[in-house]
Write a structure and sequence with these properties.
By secondary structure, the protein is of the alpha/beta class. The chain has 30 helices and 31 strands. The strands form 11 sheets. Strands 6-5-14-16 form a 4-stranded antiparallel β-sheet. The protein has a 4-stranded mixed β-sheet with strand order 10-11-9-12. Strands 29-28-31-30 form a 4-stranded mixed β-sheet, with helices on one face. Helix 21 packs antiparallel against helix 22. The radius of gyration is 36 Å and the shape is globular.
Length: about 900
C-alpha cells in the first residue's frame, strides 16, 4: 500500500470496476427478498448540491447494506423533465441567439429542448456516479421516455373516465412572465415590507355611513363583488344584507356575514371580497354566490375589458388600462385619496409569492385549467398512513401529512408551457366553434365551456359530430408532479404486468426531503393506491436540510454554499459521505462545515494507516484456533466488535444513520486503532510465537470485518484496503454484511480489559500533564480499593507496564504512593476509585513546572474573566446567536475544569518542594 491514501487514484477505478462487473444490476429472477428504492428523480437542469449529496448518500448506504445482507436489491435511477425549469433554460439560450420559442413554433421548440437534454441533461447522473451511487443504471428512466409517457396517458384517461379529472375556470397561481399556472411548491414566499390601506366604502342608501376595509392590494378593489363582516361582530353585523357603493365605480356590492374569511382582530374587521384575484376571496365568493370580475390580464396588466365589466369610472379607467400592478396601485390610491375614500395607510409586513424560476411576483389568476378531484384519492392515502401500511420516519411528520391531506384541495394539473406531457384531450372545431380562438398558425385559446374528448391517442374524427377534420389537441401540458406521482410503478413497467413490476412493487423505502412530502410523496401514495391497489412504498425516511455551520440556508447570494463536487475533490468522496451520515440526526438540520469533512478525511487516513500497520505485521503464520482459545485481548476486541456490529445494524434498521456512523467511528478509531493495535504489539513482537500467530489472525479477521461494516458508508477506501489485506471473494461490495454473533460478546472480558485500559490511560495522562518524555520509564503505583479489582488487574501487569512504559509497576490494596508522586483517580464500575501514582522524583524540574503552571493559570483566569463578563450581561445572552452562546459557555467550563486541575497540581508541587499550599 502507498504511504498515504489518494482518493483520486481509487474512486474512478473502483466505480468503473463495480459497474463493469454488473454489481449494481438487479434481476427479477434472482433469489432473495426484494429491497427496492426509487430515486427522487433530479431535474435534468440540475447540478449536484448538498441536498442531493445527503439524499443519495443515505439511499446508497441503505442499498449497499441490504445488498450485502443478501437481499435482491434494486435502486431505480432516473431524471425529471422539469417542465418550467427546462423550458426557461432553453428559452434563455434562444434569447441569446436573438430568437424565441414563438419564432420557432411549438414543434421546433420541443425538438430543441430534446437536443439540449441529449447534450446537457445527463450532467447530474454523472455527478451521482461520482458520489458512489450504486443505482441500476441499466434501468435509467426519464419522466418523458416512451414507457412513462404511456403510463401518464393511461392514468389521465382512467381518472377522466372515473370522473376524477375535470376542466374548469378557477383561480390558480399564475406567473405573468412564464405565462403559466404554477403549483403551490413552485411559488416561493418571502417576507417583505408592504402597506395596509384603509378604504372607506359608503353605504349605498346612507352615504354618510361607511364601512372601512383594510387591504394590502388597493388596486384589486375595482374587482370587488362584496364586503364581508363577522356575523357576531356587534360593530358591523347590522350591515349584513345591505349594500355599499364601491368607490371609483358605478357598482353596488353586498355586505355578507362570513366567519371563515373575517378575522375580527385584523385590520378593521371588514374585508373586501375580490373572488377573481384572491384565493380566500374565491372560496368566499363560492359560499355567497358572488360574481368574479377579472381586472388583470395574463401579463398582470390592467385589462380594458375587465375594467369595463367592473363599471370603473371612465376618467380613471383610461389611465389604468394596460398599467402593471405597481403603477395601477399608485393610480388607484391617488384616486381614492382625491375622492376622500382613503382613511389611512400604515406599514405592514407581508409574504410575497414569487415564481421559483424567474422570481416574478405571482398573481392569483382566473383561467380555464385541468384539475384532479382529489378527495376520493386522498381518503385511502390517509388510511394507509393511519393504519401503519406506510410509516413516516421520523414519526413527527405523520401529523403534518394527515393534517394536510384532510384539508387537501383539488389539484391544478395543467401548465401553459410547451415542454412536458401534452394533455391527451382534443376539441372539435365544429362542435366548439365559439369556444376556440386561433392565436397563431398552430396555437389556440380554448375557453372553459369547450367540450373536450379525452383518449389514449388522437381521434381520427369527432366522436360527436363525425367530422373528419383534425381535432385540436389541448395546448396545455401536465404539471411535472403528475408524471412524478406515478414514479414508483411507472418506472417498473406499468401499465404492463412486467416481471419487474410483479417482483419489485411495492418498493421498500423512499428517501426524501420534507419540502416535497405533500407535493410528491402524498401524490405517489394516492396514485399508487388508485392504480395498483397497493401502497407504493413501506417506509418514507424524511431527512432534514443541509445548512452552513451557523445554521443559515446555503445560497449563492450569501456566499456560504459548500459545493459537494469541490469537497469530494479536496477531501475524498468517502469523507463527505461519512460526514453527512454522521450528522443525519432525525428532524434536525445539518450544520455543515468543511472542518467536519476534513475531520472525517482524517478518519479515512486513520483507517489507511491501520491497514498499513497490519500488513507490515503479517509475516509469519496466522493461528486458526477458535476465538475462545486465543488471548484475552483478542477476545476483548472481538467482543467489542460484535457489540458494535449489533448496534450498527439496529441503528440502520431504525434509520438512525448518525448513530450507526458514530458507533462504527468510535469503535474503529478509539477502540480498535487507539487500543487494540497497541495491545497487539507485545504479542506481535514475539514473531514466531503462538501468541503472535493468534494476534495476526485476530488482526486480519477483525479488520476485514470492520471494513465490511464501514463499506456502505465509505465504499471506495474500504474496497481498496480490502483488496490489499488477506480476504476471500471478488469484491467487498458483494460480501456478506457483518451480523452480530452474541457468543462473542463477553461483558466480563470487556470489564476486565477496560479496567487495565483505564489504568494505562491514567498513567499516560500524568505523563502528558507533567510533560515527561515518552522515552522515559516510569515508576508507577496502583492503589485498588478491593482485592477483586487487584485480581482483575494483576494478570495484565506486563501489558500495562509495556503500554504505559513503566519500569516498575506495583498493584495492591495496601499501596502508599511516594510523597513525590503525581496521582490521578479513576472511577471503576460500581463507583470504586482506583488511584494511580507516578513518582516524579528525578523526572521533572519542580521549579520550572511550577512556573509553567502559574503562567497557564493566569491565562486561564483571564479567559474566564472575559467569558464571565459576557455571560453576565443579559443583552449578550439574549441577542447573541445560540451557537455562539453555547461555544462561550462550553469554553468557560473547559477553562474552569483545567484551572481546577492545575490548581491542585500546583498545590502538590509546592508540597513536594516543602512550601505551603
Amino acid at each position: 500500500m502507498e504511504k498515504s491514501y489518494d482518493p483520486k487514484q481509487v474512486e474512478t477505478r473502483w466505480y468503473r470496476t463495480w459497474s463493469e462487473r454488473g454489481y449494481f444490476h438487479a434481476s427479477a429472477a434472482a433469489n432473495g427478498s426484494p429491497y427496492v428504492i426509487v430515486i427522487p428523480p433530479p431535474n435534468i437542469t440540475g447540478s449536484l448540491h448538498m441536498g442531493h449529496a445527503l439524499n443519495n448518500t443515505i439511499q446508497d448506504i441503505l442499498i449497499r447494506w441490504r445488498r450485502m445482507q443478501g437481499l435482491n436489491t434494486l435502486w431505480v435511477p432516473g431524471t425529471d423533465h422539469a417542465g418550467i425549469a427546462t423550458q426557461n433554460v432553453v428559452e434563455k439560450q434562444l434569447l441569446a441567439e436573438g430568437s424565441s420559442r414563438d419564432k420557432l413554433g411549438r414543434d421546433r421548440f420541443v425538438q430543441r429542448v430534446w437536443e439540449w437534454k441529449a447534450q446537457s441533461g445527463g450532467t447530474i447522473i454523472e455527478q451521482l456516479k461520482r458520489l458512489g451511487s450504486s443505482c441500476d443504471w441499466d434501468r435509467l428512466r426519464f419522466t418523458m421516455d416512451e414507457g412513462l409517457s404511456k403510463a401518464v396517458r393511461e392514468v389521465f384517461v382512467r381518472l377522466h373516465e372515473d370522473g376524477l379529472i375535470y376542466r374548469g375556470k378557477r383561480l390558480i397561481n399564475w406567473c405573468p412572465r412564464c405565462l403559466t399556472a404554477l403549483s403551490d411548491i413552485e411559488v416561493e414566499h418571502a417576507d417583505t415590507a408592504g402597506k395596509l390601506y384603509h378604504i372607506r366604502y359608503p353605504l349605498a342608501d346612507d352615504p354618510a355611513t361607511h364601512l372601512t376595509v383594510a387591504t394590502t392590494r388597493p388596486e384589486t378593489m375595482l374587482g370587488d363583488t362584496g364586503v364581508a363582516v363577522h356575523p357576531e361582530d356587534p360593530r358591523y353585523n347590522r350591515f349584513i344584507g345591505k349594500s355599499v357603493a364601491l368607490p371609483l365605480t358605478r357598482r353596488r356590492i353586498p355586505v355578507v356575514g362570513d366567519s371563515i374569511l373575517v378575522d375580527r382582530e385584523f385590520g378593521t374587521g371588514a374585508v373586501k371580497i375580490t373572488p377573481a384575484h384572491d384565493f380566500n376571496d374565491f372560496e368566499a365568493g363560492l359560499r355567497h354566490n358572488l360574481p368574479r370580475l377579472a381586472i388583470f390580464d395574463q401579463h398582470a396588466r390592467m385589462d380594458a375589458a375587465g375594467l369595463r365589466d367592473a363599471q370603473v369610472n371612465e376618467a380613471i379607467r383610461e389611465h389604468l388600462t394596460s398599467q402593471p400592478v405597481q403603477k395601477a396601485r399608485a393610480l388607484v390610491v391617488e384616486a381614492l385619496e382625491k375622492g376622500g375614500f382613503l382613511a389611512k395607510v400604515e406599514d405592514h409586513a407581508m409574504a410575497l409569492g414569487k415564481c421559483y424560476r424567474c422570481k416574478t411576483v405571482v398573481e392569483p389568476y382566473l383561467s380555464p385549467q385541468w384539475f384532479v378531484k382529489i378527495r376520493p384519492l386522498a381518503d385511502p392515502a390517509i388510511k394507509a398512513v393511519e393504519s401503519g401500511q406506510i410509516r413516516l420516519v421520523p414519526e413527527q411528520w405523520t401529523n403534518n401529512y394527515l393534517g394536510w391531506m384532510r384539508d387537501i384541495k383539488d389539484w391544478c394539473i395543467s401548465r401553459q408551457i410547451w415542454w412536458g406531457h401534452q394533455i391527451p384531450a382534443w376539441y372539435c372545431k365544429h362542435c366548439n366553434e365559439d369556444a376556440i380562438l386561433q392565436t397563431g398558425s398552430r396555437s389556440y385559446s380554448i375557453a372553459s365551456e369547450a367540450k373536450p374528448w379525452v383518449g389514449r391517442q388522437a381521434p381520427s374524427h369527432c366522436p360527436d359530430c363525425g367530422h373528419s377534420d383534425p381535432m385540436i389537441q389541448d395546448p396545455d401540458v401536465l404539471d411535472t408532479w403528475f408524471s412524478s406521482a406515478l414514479w414508483p410503478f411507472s418506472t417498473l413497467g406499468w401499465p404492463e404486468k412486467t416481471p419487474d413490476l410483479q417482483r419489485y412493487y411495492p418498493t421498500s423505502t423512499l428517501v426524501t426531503g420534507f419540502d416535497i412530502l405533500f407535493f410528491w410523496v402524498a401524490r405517489m401514495i394516492m396514485m399508487g393506491l388508485k392504480f395498483t391497489g397497493k401502497v407504493p412504498f413501506r417506509d418514507v425516511y424524511i431527512h432534514a436540510l443541509v445548512r452552513d455551520a451557523e445554521g443559515q440556508k446555503m445560497s449563492k447570494s450569501k456566499g456560504n454554499v459548500i459545493d459537494p463536487l469541490a469537497v469530494m475533490d479536496k477531501y475524498g468522496t468517502d469523507a463527505l459521505r461519512f460526514t453527512l451520515a454522521a450528522m443525519a440526526s432525525p428532524g434536525r438540520d445539518i450544520k455543515l462545515s468543511e472542518e467536519r469533512i476534513e475531520g472525517y478525511r482524517n478518519f479515512a487516513n486513520k483507517l489507511w494507516n491501520a491497514a498499513r500497520f497490519i500488513l507490515m505485521n503479517l509475516e509469519g503464520s496466522r493461528a486458526e484456533a477458535p476465538l475462545a482459545e486465543r488471548p484475552i485481548v483478542d477476545r476483548w476486541v472481538m467482543s467489542r466488535l460484535h457489540r458494535c456490529i449489533g448496534d450498527v445494524n439496529r441503528s440502520l434498521e431504525a434509520y438512525r444513520f448518525d448513530e450507526a456512523a458514530n458507533t462504527v467511528y468510535h469503535f474503529t478509531w478509539h477502540e480498535y486503532c487507539d487500543w487494540y493495535l497497541e495491545l497487539a504489539k507485545p504479542a506481535l513482537a514475539e514473531k514466531d510465537s503462538v501468541r503472535a500467530a493468534h494476534a495476526r489472525a485476530t488482526l486480519v479477521e477483525s479488520f476485514e470485518t470492520v471494513l465490511r461494516l464501514l463499506h456502505p458508508f465509505m465504499p471506495f477506501i474500504t474496497e481498496e484496503i480490502w483488496q490489499a489485506i488477506p480476504h476471500t471473494g471478488e469484491s467487498i461490495m458483494v460480501m456478506p454484511y457483518p451480523s452480530q454473533n452474541t457468543v462473542f460478546v463477553r461483558e466480563d472480558i470487556e470489564r476486565e480489559i477496560e479496567g487495565s485500559l483505564k489504568v494505562i490511560a491514567g498513567i499516560r495522562e500524568i505523563r502528558g500533564l507533567q510533560a515527561i518524555a515518552p522515552s522515559k520509564e516510569l515508576s508507577v503505583t496502583v492503589a485498588t480499593p478491593t482485592q477483586a479489582i487487584e485480581q482483575s488487574l494483576r494478570p495484565h501487569h506486563g501489558l500495562i507496564a509495556s503500554l504505559a512504559r513503566a519500569g516498575t509497576l506495583t498493584i495492591g490494596t495496601d499501596i502508599k504512593h511516594p510523597a513525590s508522586a503525581a496521582t490521578t483517580s479513576l472511577v471503576f464500575p460500581g463507583g470504586s476509585i482506583v488511584e494511580v501514582g507516578v513518582d516524579l522524583a528525578g523526572l521533572i524540574d519542580v521549579g520550572k513546572e511550577k512556573a509553567r503552571i502559574e503562567k497557564r493559570l493566569k491565562e486561564l483566569a483571564a479567559h474566564m474573566e472575559q467569558d464571565e463578563k459576557k455571560l453576565s450581561k443579559p443583552d449578550f445572552v439574549a441577542k447573541v446567536p445560540p451557537d455562539v452562546l453555547k461555544k462561550t459557555q462550553a469554553r468557560h467550563e473547559e477553562c474552569k475544569a483545567e484551572h481546577d486541575k492545575l490548581t491542585g497540581e500546583l498545590r502538590r508541587l509546592r508540597e513536594m518542594a516543602g512550601g505551603s499550599a
